[in-house]
Amino acid sequence: MLQSLLASLLAACGDDRDAELEAKKLAEDLHIPYDLLEEHLSLLNLVNFGGGCYAVYAELHEAEVHVDKELFGDTFRSAPRLTPLEARAIRLALEFVGPLIAAGLGGVLVELLGDSAVRLAPVDERAARAMLARGLASARQHVTP
What we know:
By secondary structure, the protein is an alpha+beta fold. It has helices at about 1-15, 25-30, 35-45, 75, 85-95, 110-115, 125-140; strands at about 20, 55-60, 65-70, 100-105, 115-120.
């Protein structure tokens, strides 16, 4: 449901940074009870779906949903620039911890739901799917359909 809501908000923004949508129509289109729309928007604001490429914030104001979208694509397309000290710290951390793979829904869900799973690398496809399934199962327990 949240991905459909996010897709609708992004579609309304198009190439613009912000948009306004009729709240009642948005709720009807997505089959969200109108009295729960604000709760869904709040949950969407809490969850990071952007994968580091964008941030979306939406608020219900009377009969309209106001959407604010910020793109970070150019920032994340650039090659990382580490200071020598940062590079050394990463190298030492890898030597100390070892090659680990972490998977989960990400964002604040890691802290709220404890959805992440960590395994020693390399992992096969079956193990990766199991790691992601753990996060999805945790999210399903906390999100109303």
